[in-house]
């Protein structure tokens, strides 16, 4: 026996019609759709249909269940293309029934009159070919009632209802219609349902127009916002009062301002829960507002406990829109006028950086100045301090700032800061909190009075936490802020406990290894902004470090963008502002060990000097120059220690070199490092390879030609050598590598120890700064404070033309100085030695 197709000439469809007024009942209609012409639709009375089913003899049905299933599937597909019965009706799946068509086609009465027989009058107008099959329609109605019991009048009266309550209509719209469709039936629903069923409520916090204006316009991340709640469904917005009224009425279908909306109880519960939690927190803070604006609602889900079906938005007023545009670098803050007391010239991008920091200060927000190395972060910070001092004086504080600022830096750059401050801002009163004689206890606060800036180190930030927490600082600045990358070290914890009106971090490498380092810096700048470390790790760190998720990376970037300013040398706008070659001096101090070695050597030399012949005297002085330079480089060179001897924390010059090379290598830059001494080269090669885990080339007088050519080729080549990593660090002895080489792959040049003939240093620099160089070259010259190196550097600076003549022949001229002049030249200034 084969499969047989159902010969019923029509399909049975259900139609739900919206009420004539918002609180009325929802009419139900039974529609018969012509299989041959789906545009032909007949509305029939359900009760009459079931009565007719009992009168009309049912034909023998031989179709197997599979045929029924096929027919049901076919019926559902045909119904999907049916036109609407009225203007507000649509079939599930987005199709409808034409509004202008009558439920009964013209001529229907004539067509069916002959065979009407005993059919109820309500069905007599149906086509004669349909009448023998009405029992099938009645069976469909019975099946509807089993699928959706609410369609039945009552248990005692198994008849299809003619009208549904609002609750029953909502059940049919949201669930019952889907079940009927799955069973193969077509359900015609109001046309607007397809549109509004996709709507999800959006909770809007509309910030009041007064927030962000007036004298208290800027407030910090923890400031609570005044706002009004709005609940948006599509293009309909409800006020909080309207929403509360609907909650009390517990209505699920509401007509508001001429449009129907659905109110899902679960979504309403979520909305109410969020509103209650915000109220429990006493409102939304600026941090909440900023995060919601930057990321949208999803990032707030866990905090407020709502699910993805609910969205929360913030509607900024005009003042906050402008502020957020500035924070996102969409707009630039107004440029300040450079302080009149600044001794120097600011480049345009530097003035923008200072203006950005001052804008953040006005909003009580911390910022990270993350410019590329060599773009002048130090200059920008000094100018910031000068500007604040001049503004305070204009405001009637004749002595400048009411409270000093605090700058914390590595010991290796402490001297550099003092020199740069003296050079560019001699008006600033700077107090150095360092060394064995530094003020302690109650004397510290008194020692800081009258100063604009207090300089100290990361080590002392922990050791002297009791002193540093006595004041509320005008600003707290961290130089080389990656020093607090480990969030729970005593040092980082102590620094976060400091009180200040404004917080600034400066670093060229806000992330060195892990994303948690960024969190540590930002938690110092704006406590709590990125949540707790555990939350930040859960939301971002684990997934990013595991799978490098680009979406999460983009979210972190959006979060940090308002508080991080980074310009790089490769930026065309920056390069246009820079000259071809930039020279910088990096000042470092001696460690205690170096200071003792230096002083003892000088003492021993002067005890022997006057008893020597002129020739021996010259030899001793030249030997002293070498020994003192080696002491300034690293104590192990003077002590002739074996290669495996510990080197850490014994030379600030070495420590600073490592920091700078790490930063430039992370940017993909290459560097040359010149030294006068082969022993120093070997020491630096070992240390740099160990710390950076990268190959370091070293060319010196003992390097054979084959090895020399290979090194130059590897360094200059863009592609790494087979089986290895491309070298980006090239150590050279000054005499062997200072002339005749083309090393334009490098755009950084370090003079680790100084040769006092500027022409010799310039020749070495020209290994990188020459024809073929397409990038700007940065030259870094190390000077050890309080030593011979600083004295001769000062001499070159003060009398450049004369000193070139004097020093032009090298260092022989020093041997001709008198003993008193030598003592003045060699003497160690102990204030620059670590305590």
UniProtKB/TrEMBL annotation:
GO molecular function: any one? Answer: helicase activity
The keyword Hydrolase appears for this protein:
yes
InterPro entries under this entry?
A: DUF3670, Helicase_ATP-bd, Helicase_C-like, P-loop_NTPase, SNF2-like_sf, SNF2/RAD54-like_C, SNF2_N
Gene3D superfamilies tied to this protein:
P-loop containing nucleotide triphosphate hydrolases, Tandem AAA-ATPase domain
Boundaries of every Helicase ATP-binding domain copy:
358-528
Q: Which domain of life, per UniProt?
A: Bacteria
Q: Does the keyword Nucleotide-binding apply?
A: yes
**Chain ranges of the Helicase C-terminal domain:** 653-818
Record keywords, A-Z: ATP-binding, Helicase, Hydrolase, Nucleotide-binding
Which Pfam families has this protein been placed in?
Answer: DUF3670, Helicase_C, SNF2-rel_dom
> What name appears for this protein in its UniProt entry?
DEAD/DEAH box helicase
């Amino acid at each position: 026996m084969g499969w047989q197709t159902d010969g019923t000439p029509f399909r049975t469809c259900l139609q739900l019609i919206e009420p004539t007024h918002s609180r009325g009942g929802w009419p139900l209609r039974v529609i018969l759709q012509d299989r041959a012409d789906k545009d032909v639709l007949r509305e029939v009375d359900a009760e009459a249909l079931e009565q007719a089913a009992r009168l009309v003899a049912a034909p023998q049905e031989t179709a197997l269940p599979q045929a029924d299933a096929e027919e049901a599937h076919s019926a559902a597909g045909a119904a999907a293309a049916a036109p609407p019965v009225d203007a507000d009706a649509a079939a599930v799946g987005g199709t409808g029934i034409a509004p202008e068509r009558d439920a009964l086609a013209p001529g229907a009465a004539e067509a069916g009159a002959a065979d009407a027989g005993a059919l109820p009058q309500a069905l007599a107008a149906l086509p004669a070919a349909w009448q023998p099959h009405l029992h099938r329609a009645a069976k469909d109605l019975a099946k509807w009632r089993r699928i959706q019991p609410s369609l039945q009048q009552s248990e005692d009266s198994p008849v299809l209802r003619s009208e549904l309550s609002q609750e029953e209509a909502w059940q049919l719209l949201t669930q019952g219609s889907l079940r009927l469709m799955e069973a193969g039936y077509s359900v015609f629903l109001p046309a607007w349902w397809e549109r509004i069923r996709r709507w999800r409520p959006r909770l809007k916090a509309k910030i009041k127009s007064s927030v962000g204006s007036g004298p208290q316009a800027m407030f910090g991340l923890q400031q609570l916002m005044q706002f009004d709640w709005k609940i948006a469904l599509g293009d309909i917005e409800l006020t909080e009062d309207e929403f509360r009224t609907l909650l009390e009425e517990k209505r699920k279908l509401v007509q508001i301002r001429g449009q129907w909306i659905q109110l899902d109880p679960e979504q309403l519960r979520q909305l109410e829960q969020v509103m209650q939690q915000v109220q429990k927190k006493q409102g939304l803070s600026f941090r909440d507002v900023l995060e919601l604006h930057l990321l949208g609602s999803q990032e707030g889900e866990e905090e407020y406990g709502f699910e993805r079906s609910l969205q929360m938005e913030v509607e900024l007023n005009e003042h906050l829109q402008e502020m957020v545009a500035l924070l996102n670098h969409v707009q630039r803050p107004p440029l300040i006028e450079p302080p009149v007391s600044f001794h120097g010239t600011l480049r345009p991008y530097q003035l923008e950086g200072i203006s950005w920091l001052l804008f953040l200060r006005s909003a009580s927000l911390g910022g990270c100045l993350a410019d590329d190395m060599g773009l002048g972060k130090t200059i920008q910070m000094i100018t910031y301090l000068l500007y604040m001092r001049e503004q305070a004086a204009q405001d009637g504080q004749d002595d400048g700032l009411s409270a000093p600022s605090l700058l914390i830096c590595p010991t290796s750059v402490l001297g550099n800061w003092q020199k740069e401050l003296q050079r560019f801002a001699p008006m600033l009163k700077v107090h150095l909190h360092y060394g064995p004689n530094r003020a302690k206890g109650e004397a510290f606060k008194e020692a800081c009075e009258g100063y604009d800036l207090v300089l100290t180190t990361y080590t002392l930030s922990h050791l002297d936490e009791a002193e540093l927490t006595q004041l509320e600082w005008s600003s707290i600045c961290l130089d080389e802020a990656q020093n607090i990358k480990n969030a729970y070290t005593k040092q980082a914890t102590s620094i976060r406990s400091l009180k200040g009106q404004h917080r600034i971090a400066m670093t060229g490498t806000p992330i060195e290894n892990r994303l948690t380092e960024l969190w540590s810096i930002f938690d110092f700048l704006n406590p709590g902004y990125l949540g707790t470390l555990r939350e930040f790790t859960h939301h971002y760190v684990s997934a990013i470090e595991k799978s490098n998720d680009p979406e999460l990376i983009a979210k972190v970037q959006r979060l940090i963008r308002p508080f991080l300013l980074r310009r790089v040398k490769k930026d065309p706008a920056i390069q246009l502002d820079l000259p071809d070659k930039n020279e910088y001096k990096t000042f470092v101090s001696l460690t205690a060990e170096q200071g003792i070695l230096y002083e003892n050597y000088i003492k021993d030399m002067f005890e022997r000097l006057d008893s020597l012949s002129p020739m021996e005297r010259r030899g001793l002085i030249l030997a002293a120059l070498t020994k003192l330079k080696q002491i300034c480089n690293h104590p192990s060179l003077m002590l002739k220690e074996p290669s495996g001897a510990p080197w850490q924390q014994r030379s600030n010059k070495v420590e600073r070199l490592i920091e700078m090379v790490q930063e430039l290598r992370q940017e993909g830059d290459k560097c040359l490092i010149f030294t006068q001494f082969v022993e120093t080269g070997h020491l630096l090669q070992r240390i740099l390879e160990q710390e950076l885990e990268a190959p370091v080339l070293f060319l010196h007088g003992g390097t054979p030609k084959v090895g020399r050519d290979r090194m130059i080729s590897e360094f200059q080549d863009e592609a790494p050598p087979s089986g290895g990593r491309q070298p980006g660090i090239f150590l050279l002895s000054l005499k062997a590598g200072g002339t005749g080489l083309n090393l334009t792959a490098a755009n950084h040049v370090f003079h680790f120890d100084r040769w006092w003939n500027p022409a010799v240093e310039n020749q070495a620099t020209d290994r990188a700064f020459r024809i073929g160089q397409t990038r700007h070259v940065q030259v870094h010259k190390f000077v050890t404070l309080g030593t011979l190196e600083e004295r001769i550097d000062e001499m070159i600076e003060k009398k450049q033309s004369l000193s070139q003549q004097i020093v032009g022949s090298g260092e022989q001229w020093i041997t001709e100085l008198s003993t008193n002049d030598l003592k003045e030249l060699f003497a160690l200034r102990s204030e620059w030695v670590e305590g």
